[in-house]
Amino acid sequence: MSPSWPLPENDPWSTPFAQLLMHHLELHPGDTVLDIAAGGGIPAFHMAECVGPEGRVLAVDIHQAQVLRAKSVQGPHLPWLQFEVGDMRFLPPTLSPVNRITGNLSFMFFRPNRFEALKNLLRFLKPGGQIVLTFPSLGTFDSLWNYVGEEMQRRGLLKEREALNEYLQERPSSDHARQWLQELGLDRVEVTEWPLEIFTGPGQEFLQHPLLRGGFLDDIYECFEDQKLAHEFMADVSQNIDCFTPLFAQRCAMSGFLPV
Ligand SMILES: C[S@@+](CC[C@H](N)C(=O)[O-])C[C@H]1O[C@@H](n2cnc3c(N)ncnc32)[C@H](O)[C@@H]1O
Known about the structure:
With 260 residues, the protein is α/β, with parallel strands linked by helices. The chain has two domains: 14-137 and 172-196 and 250-257, Vaccinia Virus protein VP39 (Rossmann fold, 3-Layer(aba) Sandwich), CATH 3.40.50.150; 142-168 and 201-244, no CATH class. It contains ten helices and seven strands. A seven-stranded mixed beta sheet has the order 3-2-1-4-5-7-6, sandwiched between helices. Strand 4 (98-103), helix 4 and strand 5 (125-136) form a beta-alpha-beta unit. It starts with 13 loop residues before the first helix and ends with a strand. S-adenosylmethionine is lined by residues 14, 18, 36-40, 42, 60-63, 66, 87-89, 104-105, 109.
């Protein structure tokens, strides 16, 4: 029988990351799961179906609007799945420990101190439990960043170039992920990267691309104090997509088990 709560096929970003997360996650009926940065419920709904009524999934997101949206999709279904508002970096110490912690497209939001945030989160994992987080790792859209950096340089936009460099240096890599999991004493550490090609046309299709606009392009705009200049710059960039396509993201999953 096919699942009633599969990962949505029409989601070009969350689903490919969630597929990698599910590839690593060892999930069984009756498991208890804390899903952080749960958003609209990818993959919380699917995991809730996997653990069944004997299990439990607590799905936490910092934005109330996301939680309300997920609850409205849920309706009366899967009552052992609970969506709650919360900051994954400051979860209440009274929260019951679980045997799985997951976070699809989460690790990039562990700022400013990713190691500390990861360490704090592990307090909620039972001995023998598994943590699996995914994020777009270093290398994601490098062809775009290289082109944008060169263009800034060519146009003498030095402050903007510096801001871009600062942003780029702050991104987490798969090596960081492995190192931190090992430093925290986890067993069976696995860190995997799968490439994902993102397709776009020029002009408005690029500038308003639902995936790029929502995060990555905004990061470029934020490098500019003068937003009019940013718009002119990005309009030019959007006409030259041949200079930075194909555009690849790196899907990264980090997984480990807390020793028994
Ligand atoms: C890219 S979305 C991923 C949502 C979902 N897991 C998915 O794969 O579709 C990232 C989510 O992280 C949430 N978020 C960001 N910072 C957070 C924090 N400190 N604590 C909890 N959620 C956070 C955002 O509100 C957003 O819904």
